[in-house]
UniProtKB/TrEMBL annotation:
UniProt keyword terms in alphabetical order: Cytoplasm, Protease inhibitor, Serine protease inhibitor
Transmembrane intervals: none
Low complexity bias locations: 45-55
Name of the protein described by the UniProt record: Serpin peptidase inhibitor, clade B (ovalbumin), member 9
GO MF, one example: serine-type endopeptidase inhibitor activity
GO cellular component: cytoplasm; extracellular space
Domain Serpin: 128-490
Pfam families: Serpin
Location in or out of the cell: Cytoplasm
Superkingdom of the organism of origin: Eukaryota
Biased amino acid composition, Basic and acidic residues: 64-75
SUPFAM superfamilies given in the database record: Serpins
Family of the protein in this entry: Belongs to the serpin family. Ov-serpin subfamily.
């Protein structure tokens, strides 16, 4: 939606975006940018351009694993998985109160305070710990993933884990003190999958088990109750490739074809016994859409020496904008229709490396920087690239850096709450996510010194994302980060 002033106002705003000019067919840069962030050795696997959704597959097998040189974290014992009553198919939670799920609304109904806030904090902490590891790669690499997809899959694994294996999983998820984690996940997934919204957000879970293998009925029932995840029997031992294709077909269906192959070739073999899959699909329209007639090619600064062309969207409208002086950076909230979901964009100043923002960022700071009372509704000139990201990660290495070690080692992994035999270990843990951001909206299947932005220009402040930035797609009511991303290069 364009603000009053029409096309002339839009063109005037474009010309002010960091001294960019419309005099040529492509906008020309007139000044240099700050240096790029330093490169670190860890290399997750970013993918290629695509559309948008997040899917993940996790396989358990009997394949031996080498000893990990990483030290094991201090043993933290999680509370045993809760087995409370609840609806098994709809994800409807552990009873209702005032027409809402009690596990979600206990705070307002006089029950245990801040239940979902605790889960939100745990998921947010996990999301940003993972972001820091992924962002240690080459700063020119883009990053995109769905932390809620990864954490819900790990929580399903936690249902079947015991001993140090369970303790490490609980610790990496920041859930070692949460007694009702599975009921809370049940309530969260029910909230995310509400049918009566103007955006489309769906999560799906499923287990694929070896036909000849016995799995405990309590584990299967708990997965169905809390995560709406059924167990389908496949012949991994005799038809591994056919099983892989069948799993990929299920994920493709759940993500509207945006993720046709979550499990790559040779990721399933005759030793695989159980594959847990989680898929997330999101498609939303901006509350205020960008006008395509103002989208044009502009330079995007990748680093100090390189810039690349990007299709830059523009609009001038009222958005919530804040400034973080300690980084320093700008924070912009772009709501989707109904305002239940938002994209939060964290853009460092020109002279600040994005790696400095990543170094300082924590979930607590992100909450503080984006508090509604600490951001102001202003008439803002917004420049945002139109982009597509597609990324795939093998999470075994990444989770190992966060302390999950035993689960991947045969002989150490303890999944005795999942199956009577003690020879199960995690063999495949992959995550794939895709996002597309355009003029209509997004499609995806993935104490700080903050002051109000002051209006220093005649037509309002400017938010020009023509250099690397972080972005988060957030469920506002649940305070949950659904997708995390870093856009560093077109």
């Amino acid at each position: 939606m364009q603000s009053p002033g029409g096309r002339a106002r839009g063109q005037r705003a474009v010309s002010r975006c960091d001294s960019l000019s419309l005099s040529e067919p492509g906008l020309q840069r007139r000044k240099a940018r700050a240096s790029s962030p330093p490169v670190s050795p860890l290399s997750p696997r970013p993918g290629t351009a695509g559309s948008s959704r997040a899917g993940r597959g996790l396989g358990l097998g009997t394949r031996p694993r080498p000893e990990s040189p990483r030290p094991r974290p201090e043993s933290l014992r999680p509370a045993p998985p809760a087995r409370g009553a609840g609806k098994s198919r709809s994800g409807g939670g552990s009873g209702t109160c005032c027409g809402r799920i009690c596990a979600w609304a206990r705070r307002s109904c006089g029950g245990r305070a801040s239940v979902m806030d605790a889960l939100s904090e745990a998921n947010g902490t996990f999301a940003l710990r993972l972001l820091k590891i992924l962002c240690q790669d080459d700063p020119s690499h883009n990053v995109f993933y769905s932390p809620v997809s990864i954490s819900s899959a790990l929580a399903m694994v936690l249902l079947g884990a015991k001993g140090d294996t369970a303790a490490q999983l609980a610790q990496v998820l920041s859930l070692n003190t949460e007694k009702d984690i599975h009921q809370d996940f049940q309530a969260l997934l029910a909230e995310l999958n509400k049918p009566s919204t103007r955006y489309l957000l769906r999560t799906a879970n499923k287990l694929f088990g070896e036909k000849s293998r016995e799995f405990l009925s309590t584990f299967k029932e708990s997965c169905l109750r809390f995560y709406d995840a059924e167990l389908e029997q496949l012949s991994f031992a005799s038809a591994a490739e056919a099983s892989r294709k069948q799993i990929n077909a299920w994920v493709s269906k759940k993500t509207e074809g945006k993720i046709p192959e979550v499990l790559p070739w040779n990721s399933i073999d005759e030793q695989t016994r159980l594959v847990l899959v989680n898929a997330v699909y999101f498609k939303g329209r901006w509350d205020q859409q960008f006008d395509k007639k103002y989208t044009r090619e502009m330079p995007f600064r990748v680093n100090q020496k390189e810039q690349r062309p990007v299709q830059m969207m523009f609009q001038e409208a009222t958005f919530r904008l804040g400034r973080v002086e300690e980084v320093p950076a700008q924070v912009l909230e772009l709501p989707y229709e109904d305002r239940e979901l938002s994209m939060v964009v964290l853009l460092p100043d020109d002279h600040v490396a994005l790696s400095e923002v990543e170094r300082q960022l924590t979930f607590e700071k992100l909450l503080a920087w984006t508090k509604p009372e600490r951001m102001q509704s202003l008439d803002v000139e917004v420049f945002l690239p139109r982009f597509k990201l597609d990324a795939s990660y093998d999470l075994e290495l990444l989770l190992g850096h966060l302390g999950v070690v035993d689960a991947f080692q045969q002989g150490k992994a303890d999944f005795s709450a999942m199956a009577p035999e003690r020879d199960l270990s995690l063999s495949t843990f992959v995550h794939k996510s895709v996002v597309e951001v355009n003029e209509e909206g997004s499609e995806a299947a993935a104490a700080s010194a903050l002051v109000l932005m002051e209006c220093c220009m005649e037509s309002g402040p400017r938010f020009c994302a023509d250099h690397p930035f972080l972005f988060f797609i957030r469920h506002n009511k649940a305070k949950s980060i659904l997708f995390c991303g870093r856009f560093s290069s077109p």
